[in-house]
């Protein structure tokens, strides 16, 4: 049985983050027995119908516009196939390893932007904040003699505080996020120039901790394979634990075959990636950190009360306010997260070139970070998206850049192609939302 909005009262939060049956934002405690079975949305029963059930559910989702990550995954496969056919070096271990490090700095900024986009808002200051944070790091570490770790923590703290300022003006004063962060973009760019001083560039030690963030590789074969093994084992364990909780609550569970199939697909992808990385230098430290950040951010978004509140505010702000959520604090906090992640991205950008300059965080960094989140599947309209959007979107953008660089295509063409991909992602999102409304799912 479904509620009048078409949401499943027992399957977790609705798009607004609120459980239709309990009215709370916590995990619902479903009653056991026949009553629970009578209330179960029939769509959940596909888990007990095996492959036929999932095929039917897939067709239903396509008809109703619930595309998920399918468009970006298909697009990524096509991009890789096209560039590999044009140049056999595209999928070489060296190029893929370099690509995996190139996505990290902007990808980390994009993870923070995902939180803001979930509210249907925008942060135009992220690029400038990343540059200002890199400048603070370099000056404190090189000119003031701070330890690299202390300088990094200070730069993140400064950017988080500036994000708090954005959030206060937006949530408390009522200034639109576009205007607040546009002003921030200009102000923090000025701050970056002021901190760097007349020279405009501060070089970082090549053998120091900061530079090692993007230059360190774990060349032991066991490192990449071990990470793949941990990921696969963790996914399998979490899947079976989730099944046990559903079974206890009287909710239909995934079949054992379904879990094994999902685990096998993940294993092929994870161990395949590990094999490729081991053919060059091994597992990059930067990629490892990025993946950990994405997993933690996704856990916060989908498995914590705070994450549910973010989705609730992004889905229906008035309903969230009536449910007792502190809307202002949620709004402020996402800009703080965006600021912190911008700083982390700025640190990795400085690490990549072993310096902080006036160009750090400038140019197309902001646009690429926002584009990555949107291309990866985060909705510009709020209420839908995950941290994995940043990872998938950056893979698409950097794959286009890498493939065109191998072909000797100019930056102007790269920007036009990336812009076309971004427009296509927004069009797909808009059409998807329209289809879901027509199907009663939005």
Order of helices and strands: HHHHHHHHEHEHHEHHHHEHHH
Low-confidence stretches: 1-40
Report how far apart the termini are: 17 Å
Q: Taking strands numbered 1, 2, ... along the chain, how are they ordered across the largest sheet?
A: 1-4
Helical content (DSSP H or I, runs of 4+) = 55-70%
The structural domain count equals 2
Number of strands: 4
- C-alpha Rg (nearest Å): 23 Å
Mean pLDDT: 84
Structural class: mainly alpha
Gross morphology is: globular
Beta percentage is under 5%
Q: Tally the helices.
A: 18
Largest sheet: 2 strands, antiparallel
Could you characterize the architecture of this molecule?
By secondary structure, the chain is an all-alpha fold. The chain folds into 2 domains: 1-30, no CATH class; 92-369 and 377-386, no CATH class. The protein is built from 18 helices and 4 strands. The chain has helices at 34-39, 50-64, 70-86, 93-102, 104-117, 126-143, 148-173, 177-196, 209-215, 221-249, 256-278, 285-303, 305-315, 317-322, 327-353, 365-375, 388-406, 411-438; strands at residues 201-203, 217-218, 283-284, 355-357. Mean pLDDT is 84; it is low at 1-40. Residues 26-38 have a biased composition (Low complexity). It is found in: Cell membrane. The chain crosses the membrane at residues 67-87, 99-119, 126-143, 149-171, 178-197, 217-238, 259-277, 283-300, 328-351, 363-381, 388-406, 412-431. Part of the binding-protein-dependent transport system for D-xylose. Probably responsible for the translocation of the substrate across the membrane.
């Amino acid at each position: 049985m479904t509620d009048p909005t078409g949401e499943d009262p027992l399957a977790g939060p609705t798009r607004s983050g609120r459980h239709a049956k309990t009215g709370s934002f916590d995990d619902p405690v479903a009653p056991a027995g026949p009553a629970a079975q009578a209330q179960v949305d029939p769509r959940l029963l596909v888990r007990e119908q095996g492959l036929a059930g999932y095929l039917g559910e897939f067709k239903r989702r396509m008809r109703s516009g619930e595309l998920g990550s399918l468009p970006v995954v298909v697009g990524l496969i096509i991009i890789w196939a096209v560039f590999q056919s044009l140049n056999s070096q595209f999928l070489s271990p060296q190029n893929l390893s370099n690509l995996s490090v190139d996505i990290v700095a902007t990808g980390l900024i994009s993870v923070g932007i995902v939180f803001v986009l979930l509210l249907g808002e925008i942060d135009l200051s992220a690029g400038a904040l990343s540059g200002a944070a890199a400048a603070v790091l370099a000056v404190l570490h090189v000119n003031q003699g701070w330890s690299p770790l202390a300088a990094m923590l200070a730069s993140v703290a400064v950017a988080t505080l500036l994000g708090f300022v954005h959030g206060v003006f937006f949530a408390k004063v009522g200034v639109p996020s576009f205007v607040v962060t546009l002003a921030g973009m200009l102000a923090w760019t000025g701050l970056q120039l002021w901190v760097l001083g007349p020279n405009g560039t501060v070089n970082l030690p090549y053998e120091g901790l900061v530079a090692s963030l993007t230059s360190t590789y774990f060349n032991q074969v066991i490192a990449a394979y071990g990470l793949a093994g941990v990921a696969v084992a963790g996914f399998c364990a979490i899947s079976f634990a989730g099944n046990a909780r559903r079974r206890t609550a009287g909710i239909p569970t995934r079949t054992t075959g379904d879990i094994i199939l999902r685990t096998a697909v993940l294993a092929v992808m994870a161990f395949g990636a590990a094999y490729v990385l081991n053919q060059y230098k091994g597992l990059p430290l930067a990629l490892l950190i990025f993946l950990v950040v994405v997993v933690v951010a996704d856990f916060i978004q989908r498995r914590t009360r705070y994450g549910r509140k973010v989705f609730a505010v992004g889905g229906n702000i008035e309903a969230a306010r009536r449910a007792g959520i502190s809307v202002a604090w949620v709004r402020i906090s996402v800009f703080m997260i965006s600021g912190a992640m911008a700083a982390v991205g700025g640190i990795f950008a400085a690490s990549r070139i072993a310096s902080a300059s006036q160009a750090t965080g400038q140019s197309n960094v902001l646009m690429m970070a926002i584009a990555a989140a949107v291309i990866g599947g985060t909705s510009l309209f709020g209420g839908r998206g995950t941290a994995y959007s940043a990872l998938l979107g950056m893979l698409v953008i950097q794959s286009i850049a890498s493939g065109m660089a191998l072909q000797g295509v100019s930056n102007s063409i790269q920007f036009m192609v990336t812009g076309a991909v971004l427009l296509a992602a927004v069009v797909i999102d808009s059409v998807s939302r329209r289809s879901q409304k027509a199907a009663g799912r939005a």
